[in-house]
Amino acid sequence: MKCRLTYLCCFLFFIFEIKAQHSVQETEIVVDEILSTMIDHADGTVDYTDLRDQLEYYSKNKINLNKTEREELQKLFFIDEITINAIIQHRNDFGKFISVYELQSIDAIDERTLYYLSYFVSVEESLFADRTPFLKMFSIGKHEIIALHENEFQQRSGYDKSREAAGKEYFLGSPYRYVLRYEYTFKNCLTFGYAGEKDMGEQFFQGAQKYGFDFNSFHFLLRDFGKFKIIAIGDYQANFGQGLTFGSGMTGRKSAYVLAPRRNFENIRAYRSLNENEFLRGSAVTYKYGNLEFTGIFSYKYISTNYRSSDTITSSEDYFSSVQLTGLHRTQSEIQDMNNVLQGIYGGHIKYCSDNYDFGITAVNTFYNNVFLPGTKPYQLYNFRGKQLSDIGFDFNFYLQNTNFFGEVSHSPNGAFAGISGLIFPVHNRLDLLFIYRNYAKDFQTTFNNPFGENADGKNEEGFYSGMVFKINQHWNINSYFDFYRSPWLRYMIDGPSQGHEFFSELQYIVSGKTIFYFRYRHETKMHNVTDVISGDVFVAGVDKDVFLLHASHIVNSTISAETRFEYVKYSDRINPDRFGSLISEDIKMKITKRSAFACRIALFNVDDYKARVYGSEPDVLYQYSMPQYINNGVRYSFLLHYQFNKIIDCWIKYSQTTYSNVTATGSGLMLINGNTVSDLRVQLRFILK
């Protein structure tokens, strides 16, 4: 008891400081910061709204520190094993947490991590389904309605109606984007909702979209209903094991969170994103019986593909050669490819759970109503062909004290195998090591998967990854990884077997919860087709990319914070001259009044070539993300205003503008803008009813 009182005295002094920080940066700003670190050197062309939605879920459904287990805390990928072990050990030593702020008494948790954790954990008891009658859940929860409008101020070539008279393709719809969301939630037990989206250039209540939105999504998910752990109807995501046999949706890859490559999925979760591909549509259940968990999935939906009618050369029946992933249906040709192939998926996962280990078996079958015939280029030789594909896999997790062994082995119907295994080893209470070995056969075939790797397809790759988290003291941290990989067969834009390696290191200096500096260095060497700009000859050659990043953030007081960032990129293909890119940006975030907040950014960039491009995520309206690509030379401004009218209505307005100094036109084809300026506006309203 004396020990507990001592700890309470230690952290009570800091409570007001943390509460002040909460008043400066609202939850969506914190989510932006974490997501920015997670995808800092990822491909900015990928839609990361799914990852954001996962973070948003845990911010609204906080993890109870007094009931949580290691596996649940691992879903917060911004905390490492040192932090997780320290939280569990503190609870074992001193009993239940009295307050979230008690975390400050744990030496292994630095102030920045503590600040983030305060948005995602609590010690409050939740109302679970077994305490609340089922029908009553539908009357005492929260309704949330969001409406978004977005438009650009410059006209792109695709909206020029003279293209129609000339027989050229053009955008059939208006240059506006609309989003409508509705969600009902009762604690973390029940959620259901709807999301609809019309992209810029798509029709709305006319033409191919006679009934309104181009994309419509409905989800219903119930937790802990008797022995049913999960019941999902509508759109959802399913992930098992390490995502090798089956895994839909986005997951983190290589980043400053160097221990994040290990997967720790929630098997079934509701789908709230606007990505039009990475989800299942049907139903799923997870039933718990003793130490066994049975999960069944069924999905039945139409997908957009490059569809071809039968001919005598390639096929005697109709077929499709690829799946359209953009989700855009603006022109006549894009509409023709819309929802033209039926995809069915059924299967499940059986898992046995114990205190120190768990293992499971996944079996999934995918079928189409038309045959899939990919191209005939050499790198496509081992791709799946046909109407039906079945996969089976075995996954495992073992804990020996604080050491974790994990992995998965999978088999596709053509006889190919793929496997991944890893070890997280806490050498010291300030040092964690992670080792991962993966070997995915060149002819391994699946429908949905998202295992860790250099490439996103989970095949034709062998590699070894090692990561290290070293907490020198409360103020200094080092995060590093090294990844070596090779592909024994050809890949897109690589006309031969290839290999590469990547090194990353980050040095953090955490002055306090208010001030942090970090320096990151990343070097990657990989092989790629390279064209000699003089002779025009194409070679498979090694390319090098070095990225230097310096970041400083400081919370000035209870109303204002600032971030400064400098990034420098060097790209070399060993044949052509080196290319360089640089970006310097300044962010100001301000709490104007109790009801209003303001964020702005100015970024100056100088980029020689697309190969040396720079990406940088920036604050955006709720449930949206922005990661603009910086290329050429110029300046970008971004302004975000959030105003809360009352407890029911609040509003976001974002305006951004990019002005180029060395070009007179931007984009190409239908996306061409004749001019050196691109500007856009987002206006979003949210209504909350309880």
Report on the structure:
The protein is mostly beta strands and 690 residues long. It has 9 helices and 33 strands. The strands form 4 sheets. It has a 24-stranded antiparallel beta barrel. Strand 13 and strand 14 form a beta hairpin. Helix 3 crosses helix 4. The radius of gyration is 25 Å and the shape is globular. The two termini are 40 Å apart. The N terminus is likely disordered.
Q: What can be said about this structure in brief?
A:
By secondary structure, the chain is mostly beta strands.
Largest sheet: 24 strands, antiparallel, barrel
Strand content: over 45%
Class based on secondary structure composition and strand pairing: mainly beta
The total count of helices amounts to 9
**How large is the radius of gyration?**
25 Å
Low-confidence stretches: 1-25
What average pLDDT do the residues reach?
A: 88
Shape: globular
Distance between the termini: 40 Å
Helix content: 10-25%
The count of DSSP E runs of length 2 or more, i.e. the number of strands, is 33
Produce the secondary structure layout.
Layout: H1 2-12, H2 15-24, H3 27-38, H4 49-60, E1 63-64, H5 70-73, H6 81-94, H7 111-117, E2 121-122, E3 142-152, H8 162-165, E4 176-186, E5 190-198, E6 215-225, E7 228-238, E8 268-270, E9 280-289, E10 292-303, E11 305-308, E12 319-323, H9 332-336, E13 341-353, E14 357-372, E15 386-400, E16 403-411, E17 417-428, E18 431-440, E19 461-471, E20 476-487, E21 498-510, E22 515-531, E23 538-555, E24 560-572, E25 579-591, E26 596-607, E27 614-615, E28 629-630, E29 632-644, E30 649-660, E31 665-666, E32 673-674, E33 677-689
Parallel strand pairs: 1-2, 12-14
Antiparallel strand pairs: 3-4, 3-33, 4-5, 5-6, 6-7, 7-8, 7-9, 9-10, 10-13, 11-12, 13-14, 14-15, 15-16, 16-17, 17-18, 18-19, 19-20, 20-21, 21-22, 22-23, 23-24, 24-25, 25-26, 26-29, 27-28, 29-30, 30-33, 31-32
Helix pairs in contact: 3-4
